[in-house]
Amino acid sequence: MDLIAELGRLRLIPVITLHDATHAERLGDTLLTAGLPCAEITLRTPAALDAIRRLRQACPTLRLAAGTVLTGAQADQAMDAGADFVVSPGLNPTTVRHCLQAGIPIIPGINNPSQIELGLELGLSLLKFFPAEPSGGLPMLKALAAVYPVRFMPTGGISADNLGSWLAQPSVVACGGSWLVTPELLTAGDWTEIRRRITAALALCGR
Question: Which Enzyme Commission number(s) are on file for it (predicted)?
Fold first, then answer.
């Protein structure tokens, strides 16, 4: 899988924390019908791996990521559950080496030059800029992109108000966003509002 090409086509990845795996099937259907066939399910809840399994079974065409992956063991579990790739909040060389050796695509998080240089040393060309807004926002990203030959997936503080500005940067492949599918909307079963947010966001992506 050419991950950069895939994310460049999608432009937007919903970052989702699921507390109830039984929401997975309806979530997958909503994402597909709204025109955004992807999701990053964070491993922050006991329901996360089961949700990934359910999504993979119910919606095999979804591009699925496991987020908040902190260890190689978690990466293995995520892939066994059906994830296509994993995302980490930071750059742990041990976790990255494990994934590379196992053939698991990984996007680790960085927010400074030293971390980018470590990523380059490990052979990575796509990194998560996280947390994007608290780490200096667009000015910081532009400064980093001017120096290093890498592509970025900014996540953290991205919203409908600033998505267009982030995506306009040539170094940005796609953005991760948690405002699209919040735990509150999932608990309320407000699929109409989730679909509305996705539709509005895709318009900002030019899709």
Answer: 4.1.2.14
Domain ranges, residue 11: 3-204
Q: Distance (Å, rounded) from C-alpha 188 to C-alpha 103?
A: 38
Average pLDDT over residues 66-83: 98
Q: Answer for the pair 144, 136: CB distance below 8 angstroms, yes or no.
A: no
Q: Looking at the annotation, which residues are catalytic?
A: 40, 128
pTM here? 0.97
SS3 content of the chain, % helix, strand, coil (to 5): 45, 15, 40
Cβ(60)–Cβ(31) under 8 Å?
Answer: no
Burial letters 59-87, b for 16+ CB under 10 A, else e: beebbbbbbbbeebebbbbbbebbbbbbb
Q: Does residue 141 surpass a pLDDT of 80?
A: yes
Whether the CB-CB separation of 171 and 8 falls below 8 Å is answered with no
Residue 121 one-letter amino acid: E
d(CA 149, CA 104): 22
CATH code where residue 15 lies: 3.20.20.70
Give the pair of three-digit tokens for residue 96: 């990255």
Residue 131, preceding bond cis, omega within 30 degrees? yes
> Domain tally for the chain?
1
